[in-house]
């Protein structure tokens, strides 16, 4: 019999009112890459938290065997000692520590009780090199890096623990194609070294590229576990959602509307590096009833552009902006909302959600004026609206009073989207809206976007997932190092064209 690196047997884990895992069985062979798939809220992260000791023995039922030996982890440290390292879905780095400090956090090397910084920084450099970040200094403050880079640092941190079983819970959600390619290459190398890898991702193309075996969870149950060679993407999707999903991208034709947003000669400066432009003399228009996709590499300035337009970026700006034909000068998010803009940010913790508040309050947070009468919130209305969004977006939660921090990652993202839809925007800006969202729910989000188009809303969508940009946008603007690298009609755009422009190749299409 083949040795199993890991066996999880009849694992059941309950939270108040939720059975997150129901007798789950999960077996992973030594040295394989094993993908764990399932819809938002299926139980993937919970299963991995059980495995990594975050939920200690005694808080769940069932048995865990590592290399055939029963293990009862009382703490994350115990799991680490058994060679299990996990990278969580939500970034866990401390933003105001340096990269080196983060890498060694909880594991500080000391000589005679004094931190050995020379060692820390030397080691850090070598791990950063392994994840393709050799340009980053170990004493760089982590929070000043982009999300994509921070994600790679998480990975470097897990690698540095010399894991035998490496768990990656949506490691590539925030990465661009190029960074994803680096990561997948690293994982293939690891496989050659005999490291076992558990890989959670909603991006099925990655799963099919890297995984040897795929296990599918649905509603806390193990639905299937099969070699990848016996499966197809469509098959995995139907196992995940429990029905066939015929099309992935329901594009509707653009409505021909008036110009909703006109941006001219727009330049934005980096607040932390005087003189450095994050957006350089950019001009574009957004029409009513269209989706303008924005593509580019991480660090190209896409998020800075939309944050600045939304009055949420510290850096100085120059140029002109007109909404619905009228010049505007937006200096705060409040003003942006008043002008009919809404922004679904990529960093949901910073701009999106209050994690310890419930769903109802989070959804209504930015539109209190529309549900209050003379400043008093109408609770009934708040509930009615909240329930509407839960249904439309298929948010998986017990009730509107569920605290957002306890929702699965993808369901938190849906709450952010609901919150901004409720402001009834004229211009809706979505920054990586479907990051971490399962295929079924993505489809629902595209449908909602299409509905909004027919109501005359203009939509900007930043996305690092090329199939998504190509599948739903009407026009695609590519930004490279803060500059316009081309605007393409979807009919003439292909992955190759977009990538060439993003990396500084072509100018116009
Ligand atoms: N700490 C918690 N308290 C209460 N309920 C929880 C908690 N953590 C998870 N849940 C619930 O358990 C279920 C499974 O959540 P889990 O995070 O494992 O899903 P997931 O498969 O990782 O989904 P996603 O793809 O969205 O990340 C969900 O219904 C979630 O709301
Ligand atoms: Mg999860």
From TrEMBL:
Transmembrane spans: none
Entries under PROSITE patterns matching the protein: ABC_TRANSPORTER_1, ABC_TRANSPORTER_2
Recorded superkingdom: Bacteria
Protein's name according to its UniProt entry: Xylose ABC transporter ATP-binding protein
Pfam families recorded: ABC_tran
Domain ABC transporter: 6-244, 263-506
Keyword Glycosyltransferase attributed: no
GO molecular function, one term: ATP binding
Keywords annotated in UniProt: ATP-binding, Cell membrane, Membrane, Nucleotide-binding, Repeat, Sugar transport, Translocase, Transport
Gene3D superfamilies: P-loop containing nucleotide triphosphate hydrolases
Organism of provenance: Paenibacillus baimaensis
């Amino acid at each position: 019999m083949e040795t199993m690196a890991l066996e999880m047997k009849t694992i059941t884990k309950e939270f108040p009112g939720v059975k997150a895992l129901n007798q789950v069985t999960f077996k992973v062979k030594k040295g394989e890459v094993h993908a764990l798939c399932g819809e938002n809220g299926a139980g993937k992260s919970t299963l991995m938290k059980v495995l990594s000791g975050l939920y200690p023995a005694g808080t769940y039922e069932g048995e865990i065997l590592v290399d055939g030996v029963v293990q009862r982890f009382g703490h994350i440290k115990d799991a680490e000692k058994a060679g299990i390292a996990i990278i969580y879905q939500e970034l866990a780095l401390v933003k105001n520590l340096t990269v080196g400090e983060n890498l060694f956090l909880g594991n500080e090397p000391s000589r005679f009780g004094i931190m050995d910084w020379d060692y820390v920084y030397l080691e850090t450099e070598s791990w950063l090199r392994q994840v393709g970040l050799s340009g980053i200094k170990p004493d760089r403050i982590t929070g000043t890096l982009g999300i994509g880079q921070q994600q790679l640092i998480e990975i470097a941190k897990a690698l540095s623990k010399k894991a035998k079983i490496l768990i990656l819970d949506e490691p590539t959600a925030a990465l661009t194609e190029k960074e994803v390619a680096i990561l997948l290459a690293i994982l293939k190398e690891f496989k050659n070294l005999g490291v076992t890898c558990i890989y959670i991702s909603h991006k099925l193309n990655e799963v099919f590229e890297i995984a040897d075996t795929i296990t599918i969870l649905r509603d806390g149950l193990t639905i299937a576990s099969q070699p990848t060679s016996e499966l197809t993407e469509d098959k995995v999707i139907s196992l995940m959602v429990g029905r066939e999903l015929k099309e992935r991208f329901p594009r509707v034709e653009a409505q021909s509307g008036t110009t909703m947003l006109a941006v001219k000669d727009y330049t934005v400066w980096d607040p932390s590096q005087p003189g450095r432009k994050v957006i350089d003399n950019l001009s574009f228009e957004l029409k009513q009833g269209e989706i303008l996709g924005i593509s580019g590499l991480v660090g190209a300035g896409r998020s800075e552009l939309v944050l600045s337009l939304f009055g949420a970026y510290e850096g100085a700006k120059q140029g002109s902006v007109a909404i619905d034909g009228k010049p505007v000068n937006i200096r705060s998010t409040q003003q942006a909302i008043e002008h009919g803009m809404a922004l679904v940010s990529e960093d949901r913790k910073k701009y999106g959600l209050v994690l310890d508040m419930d769903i109802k309050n989070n959804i209504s947070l930015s539109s209190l004026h529309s549900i209050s009468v003379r400043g008093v919130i109408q609770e009934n209305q708040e509930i009615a609206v909240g329930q509407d969004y839960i249904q439309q977006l298929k948010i998986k939660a017990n009730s509107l009073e569920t605290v957002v921090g306890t929702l699965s990652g993808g369901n938190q993202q849906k709450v952010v989207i609901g919150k901004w839809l409720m402001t009834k925007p004229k211009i809706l800006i979505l920054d990586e809206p479907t990051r971490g969202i399962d295929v079924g729910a993505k489809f629902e989000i595209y449908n909602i976007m299409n509905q909004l188009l027919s109501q005359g809303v203009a939509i900007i969508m930043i996305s690092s997932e090329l199939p998504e940009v190509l599948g739903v946008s009407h026009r695609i603007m590519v930004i490279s190092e803060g500059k316009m690298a081309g605007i393409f009609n979807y009919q003439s755009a292909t992955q190759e064209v977009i990538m060439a422009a993003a990396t500084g190749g072509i100018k116009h299409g």
